[in-house]
Amino acid sequence: MAKPTPLSIPLLFLITITIAIPSTSAKTFRCTTAGATCQSIVDYLPPNRTTLRAIQSLFSVPHLYSILGANNLPLNTTASTPVPPQQRLRIPFPCLCSNGTGASRGRPVYTVVPDDGLWHIAAQVFSNIVTVAEIQAANGIPNPDKIEVGQNLTIPLPCSCDEVGGAAVVHYGHEVAAESSIEGIAQQYNVSQETLMQLNNLTGPQDLKAQDIIDVPLRACSSMVSNNSLDYPLLVPSNAYVVTANACVKCKCDNNTANSMLQCEPAGMINASCPVIRCDASPNLFLGNTTSSGCNATTCSYAGYNTTIQTMLDSVSTCPAPPGPGSSATTLNGWRLVIFINAVMLCLLFV
Predict the structure, then answer these.
(1) What is the DSSP code (8-state) at residue 244?
(2) DSSP state, 120?
(3) What are residue 95's DSSP bridge partners?
C-alpha cells in the first residue's frame, strides 16, 4: 500500500474535521398547503445524560404518554427514567404550514437563562435540530448577540403536513447518522430513494451530511376514525401508538404494510373517569375485542370522539380467497377436465 504523501495527511485531517462539524444548514421542510395543521415528530439526541421529564419540559410536551407512544415505550414508563447522552428519541409536536414551509405550532418555548446565546441554544440545548437564523426569524430578533435573561423564545421545529404520493403521512425529522446513505435510510423507513431525494432537494449521495435533519415520510396505519372526530385524521406510524379521546383510548400501529389497520383498545388507568367502551350494535363486544363466526371476524373498532367515544363494528373474511384465473389450482382443475373429456371420447370410440 502506498504511503500517504505529506500533502495527503492534512487533506485527510481536513476531511475528518469537516465531517465532524455539525450541520448549520436550514432545517425547514417544504409544506405547500397554507394553514394546514397536523402532528409531526423529530429526532432529539440529548448532549448530556437527562431524564424523560426534563425532555418533556424542554419541548413543552403536555403529556408524557405522547413521548412514550412516539417511541413505542411501555405506557407505565415513568418520567424519571434516565436517558443517556446521544440516545435517539422521537419528539411529537403540532405542525403548522405557512409561507411554503412547516414549523412547530406554539411550542416548544425556551426561557433564556444567564450566559445563554442563540448558538448555544440551537447547537447544544436543542442539538442542532434548529439553526440560529431560524430562531431569530421565529422571534423577530435582529441581533443574535442581544437576548435577555427570562426572554421566552419559540423554537421552530421542522415539519410538514403535505401528502406524499397522494396519501397522508407522518413527516419525521430524521437526524442523519454518520456513514448513513440515502439507500439505507429509504430501506429502513420503507420509502423510495426518489421520494427522499425530492422531499429534501438532494441531487445525490454527496448532499447527505451527518447531523442533517431530513424529511422522512412515514406511512400510517389505516383507521376507522370518522372525519368529524376531534382527532381526525388519526395518523400513527409503524411501531408507535397514540393515546387519544381524553386519554381513554390507546391506538397502535404494529407494522407498515399496505393493509395495516390501527388497533385500538382502552388506555387503562391514565384517566380513571373513562367510560366502559363497547359497540352499541353488539353490547357484549368491547373496544378492541374480536369475535369470530364461520369465515367472519368482527372487531369493535375505534371511530373517533366528540362529546362521546364513537365505535363501530369492523368485519373481515378469514377464509382463503377462491383461486383466480391463471392460478395453479385453476390450471390443475382445467387439466383434469381435459383429461376427463379425452377419456370419455376414447371410451365412445370403442363402443
Answers:
(1) E
(2) I
(3) 38, 104
Task: Report the alpha-carbon angle 302-304-305, nearest 5.
Answer: 125
Helix, strand, or coil (residue 51) = strand
Backbone conformation region of residue 304, classed left if phi is above 0, alpha if psi is from -120 to 50, else beta: left
| Residues near 11 by beta carbon (within 8 Å), at least 6 away in sequence | none
Return the closest-CA partner of residue 154 out of 108, 216, 209: 108
In terms of Cα–Cα distance, which of 246, 243, 239 is closest to 275? 246
- DSSP 8-state symbol, 204: S
Q: Are strands 37-44 and 169-175 parallel, antiparallel or unpaired?
A: parallel
C-alpha cell at position 64: 408524557
Q: Could you report the per-residue pLDDT of 122-165, keeping only the tens digit for each?
A: 999 999 999 999 999 999 999 998 999 999 999 999 999 999 99
Half-sphere exposure of 48 (CA within 13 A, CB side): 5
Which cell numbers hold the place of 304? 373517533
Tracing cell 445525490 back to the chain, one arrives at 204
Asked whether residue 112 carries a pLDDT value surpassing 90, the answer given is yes
Residues in the chain: 351
Q: Rounded CA gap, 73 and 53, in Å?
A: 14
Q: How many helices and strands (H and E) does the chain possess?
A: 8, 19
Contacts of 116 (CB under 8 A, 6+ apart): 147, 149
Please, which residues bridge with residue 251 across strands? 242, 264
Instruction: Give me the chain's average pLDDT, please.
Output: 86
Model pLDDT, residue 294: 79
Buried b (16+ CB within 10 A) or exposed e, 43-67: bbbbeeebebebbbebbebeebbbb
